């Protein structure tokens, strides 16, 4: 494990700051060595003057004194003060052909040792190199103006850097495109939650009669009114993003970015005009777009979540293909506003989530009128009638046998997954590696790609969570590490999330399956119960439907390692528990905390029945 | 409104070698007379008609028989609050594409019947539960004969004596009527009545500034009734005052009328049945008058201790409040007599607090544990139209304890996503986190004003209990889009003087 960079106390020129060294790397494997190399290149890249030295070496001291006397900021890595100094020295010699210290870099140029540095000083070369301020147009160019990209760009600008954002929405096959802000704002969380709210209001309307509100006719829903209101809100958000970028002096260019050579990107606007920009650093935050099936008729006739939220007409009878959270959320709110909805599922619901919870989410939807076709995949989509909406015939086949089936729908919504937008941005030109299969970009724990000056945040990352707040956090922290004095890394552990299905599902930490895989079943205790929200009682809604579950590690003080709730306002409930889990929540602490009465959240303070006991958890009807 | 439900059940020592003989008396006790050998009849006797007492004897069941919470407190209150919220939703619905009539009338009778039916079903459920637990429930009025013996009187006037080793008083409190206002008792009602009214209360004057007053005024306004709150001084005494004034500001902007700095002096019934209320403006000394259909007193609660003959047992009370003085063990001045819930001096009047205090007391009495009740960091939520959830210290209290220079307050005005399309005003949606100033900035208190505040606050209460610092809260990733995520995004300190309004994502 490597230590941190230490300046020599007392000899540091004012304002010089120490950078962290990178923890957690063992330099034995080839992979680790590659990682070390990348980090060293990063240090060389990041610092105007970078000195690799040893604290006791008199030559190193002379070099430091030289830079101090010139009033130049420099950064040092003392090889004798880090655990893995020998490996660093080896890798440095591979890079520079120089085995000794000091090993000096000025503006990314390898200067050499002590003598060479002093010679350069005498010849004026050193001053020339130092004067050569950034040769790039920008300190940072962010490709992609979504949650992560904007957060990173704005934070870098706040830290005084010259920043550009390139954002360009390639229209969907149906021709839908949108403004600045990325998926979350335009075709993700925001419109999704608002349509979910519309559906919840439908439920509230029917509840309200039980609570004494009087009106006769069954409320009808108008798709156009809803969509227009939601699109207006999104429009105001797009606008506020532009204003915010302008206020922070971030250059926003509505063009498609593509790397053409190292540090250089080509931006193509809607009219096809090309401009090139250079930058010292790049952040890839291009996100993902919905995947298509690759069957006959899919791109011609099917829509995706990219199209749904701004669809100018009511989708009518809808087939949702897929079982991702996008699929279930869309199916949920479409049914909630009164449409006939069918979900076609190839295998499991909500892959990656706790499967007991996922099945409960599905069965609630099923009980509330959504049809599920399990173990089928579409093979062909055919247009029967044009119109808004038209009529489509879908042919599907069983995943288990030769059986096929046909159905007629007004709309077919594909929600089978998303693909990273990484294959058409020139990454190969500068050698940024992607996972060829998934298109995702592997990064280290500081979001750095294999090309040291290129970073990535958000949904394009391999093995990270695809969530807006995660991207924002990662983007912001990345900017602070690159340009500020911060060391904090994005923590991808215990990230809470909520699926906004008709009955919301909030969770934090591990699923039961994952917990068993990691800790073994016998080391876990699972506490669970059904609960009946007070508001549901008078409304006459289902008892024994809302469900709470925590997973505790018996051999670590019953620490809570998984938190799951299925019920109204699950998102609001889960957030605070996520904070508690960050602070080491245990079962005992849950028991010791007073509930807020009457809420759903309080159910977690009175959990008594373990799953292993097999006791009945149903709530007795009154 | 805390209700102490006396919960009696067989408390067992581990290994069940020894079975506690427990009795619960809702308002009293019936039992056998003291036996000849001078041994006490019971190990534990609980006197309590509320929810707190019951918790003392039985571990596991949370709610006992009725009590304030179930009958005239949290449960009907939250349901009527929900009815009012549904009124808001009906108004939101057209923005989201639902075609509903402009003016939807509300039928009090229908709501009240539904709410009351639910409460009755809960009463029944509790009775069944007690039977399941082999606990007998007696409806008798109790008073002390001496420090070990209690006399119970049934409705029929039959007396029984009961003795016990340990006695727990959990008699709760009842709403207070003013004593010096003409017509107050004859013509006014309290929260004990409002939830059981068969007919709409009509134009209502709510007197008081307690959370009971504001909650009732809130849902009455929400049910389209003309509602006025008359308060003598500040709203929500004991709560954070900045939050409290935002609560009333929100209510005022949503139709509740406020008469501040006023006290009623007379209530007179007019020939048409309306009530004419005369009040005095304390600042100007001027008298004013108004007519209402209903006058609701919500000026505080008095403990039900006076009929207990506590002096015969030697139990001390506060002469002003009549509440029973207790120590950290919940013990009164007589070591084997305990008091929990609203009847005890200085305890928060909250159901779950009483329940947990009862449970922990029972565990201590039977030697299962020595844990004391932690009265700090009790989370609670005021179900006003815009809900106010809090846990830990108010800003005032934090400053008083630690000094202003050691307290950092992070705050934000935010806009719930759902409000945008509904074009609802979010001027009072506000979050405040009170922290110690020294890193890592331990969280002392959290205050949340907005929809679903109760749900939001519960988890954070756990966090604070776990010793969360500002740094840890900031490291927690938000759940998007929720209101709760705004807590994890608090960046602006009050000290900085920067604009605390959240813009964009």
TrEMBL record, chain A:
This protein's GO CC annotations: cytosol; mitochondrion; nucleus
Domain FAD/NAD(P)-binding, chain residue ranges per copy: 138-475
Leader peptide range in chain numbering: none
Compartment(s) where it occurs, according to its Swiss-Prot or TrEMBL record: Cytoplasm; Microsome; Nucleus
GO molecular function, one term: flavin adenine dinucleotide binding
Location of the Glutaredoxin domain: 49-110
Zinc among keywords: no
InterPro entries: FAD/NAD-bd_sf, FAD/NAD-binding_dom, FAD/NAD-linked_Rdtase_dimer_sf, Glutaredoxin, Glutaredoxin_euk/vir, GSHR/TRXR-like, Pyr_nucl-diS_OxRdtase_dimer, Pyr_OxRdtase_I_AS
GO BP term, pick one: cell redox homeostasis
Domain Pyridine nucleotide-disulphide oxidoreductase dimerisation per the UniProt entry, residue ranges: 495-606
EC number(s) from the headed UniProt entry: 1.8.1.9
Cofactors: FAD
Sequence segments annotated as region (Disordered): 1-20
Superkingdom field: Eukaryota
Keyword list, A-Z: Cytoplasm, Developmental protein, Differentiation, Disulfide bond, Electron transport, Endoplasmic reticulum, FAD, Flavoprotein, Methylation, Microsome, NADP, Nucleus, Oxidoreductase, Phosphoprotein, Redox-active center, Selenocysteine, Spermatogenesis, Transport
Enzyme class: oxidoreductase
Keyword Electron transport: yes
Reactions listed under catalytic activity: [thioredoxin]-dithiol + NADP(+) = [thioredoxin]-disulfide + NADPH + H(+)
Compositionally skewed regions (Low complexity) per UniProt: 1-15
Subunit structure: Homodimer.
Family: Belongs to the class-I pyridine nucleotide-disulfide oxidoreductase family.
UniProt function note: Displays thioredoxin reductase, glutaredoxin and glutathione reductase activities. Catalyzes disulfide bond isomerization. Promotes disulfide bond formation between GPX4 and various sperm proteins and may play a role in sperm maturation by promoting formation of sperm structural components.
Name by which UniProt lists this protein: Thioredoxin reductase 3
Protein's gene: TXNRD3
């Amino acid at each position: 494990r490597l230590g941190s960079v230490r300046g020599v106390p007392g000899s540091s020129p004012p304002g010089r700051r120490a950078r962290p060294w990178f923890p957690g790397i063992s330099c034995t494997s080839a992979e680790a060595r590659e990682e070390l190399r990348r980090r060293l290149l990063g240090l060389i890249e990041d610092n105007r003057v970078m000195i690799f030295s040893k604290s006791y070496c008199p030559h190193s001291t002379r070099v430091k004194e030289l830079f101090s006397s010139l009033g130049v900021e420099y950064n040092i890595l003392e090889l004798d003060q880090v655990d893995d100094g020998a490996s660093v020295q080896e890798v440095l010699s591979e890079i520079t052909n120089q085995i000794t210290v000091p090993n000096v870099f000025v503006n990314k140029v390898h200067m050499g040792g002590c003598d060479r540095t002093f010679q350069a000083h005498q010849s004026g070369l050193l001053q020339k190199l130092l004067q050569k301020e950034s040769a790039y147009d920008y300190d940072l160019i962010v490709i992609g103006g979504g949650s992560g990209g904007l957060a990173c760009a704005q934070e870098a600008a706040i830290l005084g850097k010259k920043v550009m954002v390139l954002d360009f929405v390639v229209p969907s096959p149906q021709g839908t495109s949108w403004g600045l802000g990325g998926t979350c704002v335009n075709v993700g969380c925001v419109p999704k939650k608002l349509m979910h709210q519309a559906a919840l209001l439908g439920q509230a309307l029917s509840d309200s009669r039980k609570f004494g509100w009087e009106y006769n006719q069954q409320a009808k829903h108008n798709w156009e009114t809803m969509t227009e209101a939601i699109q207006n809100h999104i429009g105001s958000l797009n606008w506020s993003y532009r204003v915010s970028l302008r206020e922070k002096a971030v250059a926003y260019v509505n063009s498609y970015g593509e790397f053409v050579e190292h540090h250089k990107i080509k931006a193509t606007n809607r009219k096809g005009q090309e401009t090139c920009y250079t930058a010292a650093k790049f952040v890839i935050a291009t996100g993902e777009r919905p995947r298509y099936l690759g069957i006959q008729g899919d791109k011609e006739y099917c829509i995706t979540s990219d199209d749904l939220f701004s669809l100018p007409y009511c989708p009518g009878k809808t087939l949702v293909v897929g079982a991702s959270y996008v699929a279930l959320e869309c199916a949920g709110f479409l049914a909630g506003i009164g449409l006939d909805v069918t979900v076609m599922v190839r295998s499991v619901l909500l892959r990656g989530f706790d499967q007991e919870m996922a099945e409960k989410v599905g069965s609630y939807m099923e009980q509330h009128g959504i049809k599920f076709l399990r173990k089928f995949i579409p093979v062909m989509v055919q247009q029967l009638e044009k119109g808004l909406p038209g009529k489509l015939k879908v042919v599907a086949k069983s995943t288990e046998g030769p059986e096929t089936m046909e159905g007629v729908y007004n709309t077919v919504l594909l929600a089978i997954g998303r693909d990273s937008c990484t294959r058409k941005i020139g990454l190969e030109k500068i050698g940024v590696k992607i996972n060829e299969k998934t298109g995702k970009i592997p990064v280290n724990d500081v979001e750095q790609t294999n090309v040291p000056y290129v970073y990535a945040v958000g949904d394009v990352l391999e093995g990270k969570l695809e969530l807006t707040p995660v991207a924002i956090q990662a983007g912001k922290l990345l900017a602070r590490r690159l340009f500020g004095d911060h060391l904090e890394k994005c923590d991808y552990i215990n990230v809470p999330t909520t699926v906004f299905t008709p009955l919301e599902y909030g969770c934090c930490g591990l699923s039961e399956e994952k917990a068993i895989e990691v800790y073994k079943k016998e080391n876990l205790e699972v506490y669970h119960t059904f609960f009946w929200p007070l508001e549901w009682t008078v409304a006459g809604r289902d008892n024994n439907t809302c469900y709470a579950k925590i997973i505790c590690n018996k051999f670590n003080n019953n620490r809570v390692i998984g938190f799951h709730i299925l019920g109204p306002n699950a998102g609001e409930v889960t957030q605070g528990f996520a904070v508690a889990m960050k602070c080491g929540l245990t079962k005992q602490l849950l028991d010791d905390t007073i509930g807020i009465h009457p809420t759903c959240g309080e159910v977690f303070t009175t959990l008594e029945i373990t799953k292993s006991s097999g006791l009945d958890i149903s709530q007795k009807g009154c | 409104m805390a209700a102490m439900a006396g919960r009696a059940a067989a408390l067992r020592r581990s290994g069940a070698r020894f079975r506690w003989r427990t009795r619960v008396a809702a308002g009293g006790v019936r039992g056998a007379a003291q036996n000849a050998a001078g041994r006490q009849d019971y190990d534990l006797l609980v006197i309590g008609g509320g929810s707190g007492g019951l918790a003392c004897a039985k571990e596991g069941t949370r709610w006992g028989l009725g009590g304030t919470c179930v009958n005239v407190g949290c449960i009907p209150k939250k349901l009527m609050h929900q009815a009012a919220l549904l009124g808001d939703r009906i108004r939101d619905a057209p923005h989201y594409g639902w075609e509903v009539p402009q003016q939807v009338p509300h039928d009090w009778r229908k709501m009240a019947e539904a709410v009351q039916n639910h409460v009755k079903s809960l009463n029944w459920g509790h009775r069944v539960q007690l039977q399941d637990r082999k606990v007998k429930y007696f409806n008798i009025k109790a008073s002390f004969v001496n420090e070990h013996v209690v006399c119970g009187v049934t409705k029929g006037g039959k007396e029984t004596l009961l003795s016990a080793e340990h006695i727990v008083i959990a008699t709760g409190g009842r709403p207070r009527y003013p004593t010096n206002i003409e017509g107050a008792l004859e013509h006014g009602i309290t929260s004990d009545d409002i939830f059981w009214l068969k007919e709409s209360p009509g134009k209502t004057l709510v007197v008081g500034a307690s959370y009971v007053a504001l909650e009732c005024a809130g849902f009455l306004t929400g049910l389209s009734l003309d509602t006025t709150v008359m308060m003598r001084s500040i709203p929500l005494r004991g709560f954070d005052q900045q939050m409290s004034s935002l609560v009333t500001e929100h209510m005022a902007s949503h139709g509740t009328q406020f008469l501040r700095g006023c006290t009623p002096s007379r209530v007179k019934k007019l020939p048409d049945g309306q009530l004419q209320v005369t009040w005095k403006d304390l600042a100007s000394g001027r008298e004013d008058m108004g007519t209402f259909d209903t006058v609701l007193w919500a000026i505080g609660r008095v403990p039900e201790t006076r009929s207990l003959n506590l002096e015969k047992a030697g139990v001390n009370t506060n002469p002003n409040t009549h509440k029973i003085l207790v120590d950290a063990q919940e013990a009164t001045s007589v070591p084997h007599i305990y008091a929990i819930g609203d009847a005890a001096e200085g305890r928060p009047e909250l159901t779950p607090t009483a329940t947990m205090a009862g449970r922990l007391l029972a565990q201590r009495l039977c030697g299962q544990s020595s844990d004391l009740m932690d009265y700090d960091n009790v989370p609670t939520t005021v179900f006003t139209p815009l809900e106010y959830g809090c846990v830990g210290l108010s800003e005032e209290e934090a400053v008083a304890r630690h000094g202003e220079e050691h307290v950092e307050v992070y705050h934000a005005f935010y806009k719930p996503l759902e409000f945008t399309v509904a074009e609802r005003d979010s001027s009072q949606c506000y979050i405040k986190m009170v922290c110690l100033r020294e890193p890592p900035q331990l969280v002392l208190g959290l205050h949340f004003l907005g929809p679903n505040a109760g749900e939001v606050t519960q988890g954070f209460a756990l966090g604070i209990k776990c010793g969360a610092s500002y740094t840890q809260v900031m490291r927690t990733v938000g759940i998007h889009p929720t209101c709760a995520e705004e807590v994890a995004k608090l960046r602006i300190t009050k000290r900085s003087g920067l604009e605390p309004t959240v813009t964009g994502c």
